[in-house]
Amino acid sequence: MANSNAGNSPKFWQLFSSTFRTFFGNLGSFGPLFLAFWASMFLVQLSGHMAGVTGVGLYGKIDYGFNEALKGAFMLIYFILTVFVSVVMSLGLIKMALGFVKGKKVGLVESISFGLKNFWHGLWIGIRVTWYTFKWPFLIIAVVLILFGVLSGFAVANMAGAEEISNGALIETAYEAGDIDALAELTKDVKSSDLKAGDLDAFFADTEGPSSITSVATMILGGLGIIGILTFLIFGIWRGVRLYFSTYGFVDKGKKSWDALQHSMDTVKGHFWLVLFYLLFFGILMALIFIFPLSFVYNPMFKGGSVVLALVIQNFGSTLMAMLLSVFAASLYTKLSK
């Protein structure tokens, strides 16, 4: 389906200014949602910090002396909270952002209720978006891991017999001592005829096979690893941008599952580079304004302060950035989907 708005692209600075007017002009609604979002993200980060999954910005991790079982429990809590908070708060935030962009007031209770009520729909859309975006990179990584296992096993099997002969000085000593049969028995994979013939160079050549196999395996796996990373970047950008408005389509028009993904692709069609540039540039600006300055406001490492307070301050910037980005994306989506 062609995009009817292809000839009327929205201007970045108009969207940028309208984002701030919409957000700060309706702080009575966005403010409580911001506090709820902020508190939720703080709990998520705190549980992750306890599990050793997350650090505190640039300050590293702190070992609380928990045993592995307790760390595992915190890690499970961290995973569940991350998924739940991300889905519920994203749905609620998009609901509020789209409402105000379209001139409809949406309160905290309505937005959070919408997120809770539609949690499973939002989660399923997120899973579909992730799989559609990264299925080929995932498959490539799976192939790399399988090949790694096969080649590693093959290399280890070939190196097992030569393990005892890695020291060249020891080989020469055993050879000069005339204990050829014992040395051949230990090496197994080399030709004892080379030793009996006095051809020490050939003996060494026969023992270098496993090293060559390992080198080839390393080169192959390295190449496949690079291909996997590039595939993640290419598919992540190309399909990620095209599917960016999938959740917006669900909140705005009730599109579910694949229909939400298709609606996003129809919305972005003809505007791929514009959407990519706008979202990337807006994200960079928000990081420069909010994230980086707050990262240096409070440093528990240098000031001997509280890690909890550091988490609170850092989540303030990241939460505010996420909310402004949602409002900006809601404005962009509304312009493109007309």
Which terms would index this structure?
mainly alpha
Compact description:
The chain is mainly α. The protein has a domain of 211 residues. It has 15 helices and no strands.
Explain the overall architecture:
This protein has a domain at about 10-135 and about 250-335. It is globular, with a radius of gyration of 29 Å. With about 350 residues, the protein is an all-alpha fold. Residues about 55-60, about 160-170, about 190-200 and about 205-210 have low confidence and may be disordered. It contains 15 helices and no strands. It has helices spanning about 10-25, 25-50, 70-100, 110-115, 120-160, 170-175, 180-185, 190-195, 200-205, 210-240, 245-255, 255-270, 270-295, 300-305, 305-335. It starts with 11 loop residues before the first helix and ends with a helix.
Q: Quick one: overall form?
A: globular
- Mean pLDDT score, rounded? 74
Query: Could you give the distance between the termini?
Result: 13 Å
Order of helices and strands: HHHHHHHHHHHHHHH
Low-pLDDT regions: 54-62, 160-169, 189-198, 206-211
Helical content class: over 70%
Tell me the fraction of residues in β-strands, as a range.
under 5%
In terms of structural class, how would the helical and strand content be classed? mainly alpha
Describe the main β-sheet briefly: none
| Number of alpha- plus pi-helical segments | 15
Task: Round the Cα radius of gyration to an integer and report it.
Answer: 29 Å
Number of strands: 0
